[in-house]
Amino acid sequence: MIPGVFSGRRRFSDLSEQEVLALAISNEEDDGRIYRQYAQRLREKFPNSAKVFDEMAVEEDDHRKRLIEAHQRRFGEVIPLIRREHVSGFYARNPIWLIENLGLERIRAEASEMERQAEQFYRKAADRSTDAETRKLLGDLAAAEAGHNALAGALEAKYLGGDARSEEDRAAHRQFILTWVQPGLAGLMDGSVSTLAPIFATAFATQNTHTTFLVGLAASIGAGISMGFTEAASDDGEISGRGSPVKRGIAAGVMTTIGGLGHALPYLIQEFWTATTIAMIVVFVELWAIVWIQNRFMQTPFLRATFQVVLGGALVFAAGALIGAG
Q1: pLDDT of residue 2
Q2: Which residues pair with 88 in a beta bridge?
Q3: Which of 23, 136, 292, 304 is the most buried (most CB within 10 A)?
Q4: Which residues partner with 11 through β-bridges?
Q5: How many CB atoms lie within 10 A of CB 256?
Q6: Are 216 and 199 within 8 A, CB to CB?
Q7: pLDDT single digits (tens) 89-133
Q8: Helix 104-128 with 47-75: angle, nearest 10 deg
Q9: Percent of the chain at pLDDT above 90?
Q10: Which residues in 146-175 are b (16+ Cβ under 10 Å) and which e?
Q11: Helical H runs in the chain?
Q12: From its phi and psi, is residue 76 left (phi > 0), alpha (psi between -120 and 50) or beta?
């Protein structure tokens, strides 16, 4: 399929000056809505950042009014219906629900990218315009969009100056820890440690790599499902502030499964001692990775984390090996 010919979309280069102006109007409308949704999403936990996006939305509204006035002067009252998705190869906005759940920094980065793309659009439109008045208009709009980044910086200085931004950044980091790292770490520990005994007991009892792999696969997936549902059902996050139970359940369930699969997958190798040696190396790496994560994100003292994870894992491994060998 040739873009812009059979896809039902127009090429940007084929748009008339009126259509380019109409596209700019719809872009400003969409961006204003996005900023308001960002502000609504952030208002409860990050009120100062919400104020930044509120004022950016007001600025978008002002630019939209200026664009409409320019269209009325040149082309009349009827504005053609044309949007980003009608233009082949034109930049698109990410769906709001994909961005708003990814945290404060991602929202700030997305807003900055929106302004950069808008500036680029107006500059390209001005370059291909042959009408002097339209070229000036589009150049002015490009300058205005470039100024949006300066506006965003001024608004951040206004609302996020001093300790405000640091406080919001700390709150965002804490929320990330509570929603993703903590349940994910608990799942990784559970998956890595709790599956050691059944996997290595089966391995040493049967010395059959296929059987050991199936037991490890079942134990890992079962533990992941159990851990995920337990985490999601244990706390709705409303009072504790730990965030969405669905996100926490996913983090715990996925990491539990990964923790178990790490030392189950080596048993896809048919030679028993090769598979077992690799599995033990994987266990060693997993346990020290958990120690590092605890120390890095949970501020657990290194020696305490080592005692809790490595020693505990070694004891579970030894229990499984002794049971299997007996």
Answers
A1: 43
A2: 11
A3: 23
A4: 88
A5: 32
A6: yes
A7: 676 776 666 555 556 767 777 777 788 788 888 888 788 777 787
A8: 20
A9: 23
A10: bebeebbeebbeebbeeebbeebeeebeeb
A11: 17-42, 47-75, 96-99, 104-128, 132-159, 164-176, 182-194, 196-206, 209-234, 245-261, 272-297, 302-306, 312-325
A12: left
Q: 156 and 162 in contact (C-beta within 8 Å)? A: no
Residue 88: phi and psi, rounded to 5, are -65, 130
CATH number of 10-161: 1.20.1260.10
Residue of 163 and 170 predicted with greater confidence: 170
H/E element, 11: strand 10-11
The pLDDT value given to residue 174: 67
Cα of 257 vs its chain's centroid, Å: 21
What values do phi and psi take at 287, rounded to 5?
Answer: -65, -40
Angle value at C-alpha 247, between 246 and 250, nearest 5 degrees: 85
Give the confidence band of 261 by pLDDT, cuts at 50, 70, 90.
very high
CB count in 10 Å sphere of residue 40: 13
Tokens 């539990």: give the residue.
256
* Rg of the chain taking only CA atoms, in angstroms: 28
- 87 DSSP β-pair partners: 10
Q: Where in the chain is the domain with CATH 1.20.1260.10?
A: 10-161
Closest CA to 271 of 208, 194, 185, 196: 208
- Which residues 6+ apart lie within 8 Å of 188 measured at CB? 255, 256, 258, 259, 286, 289, 290, 293
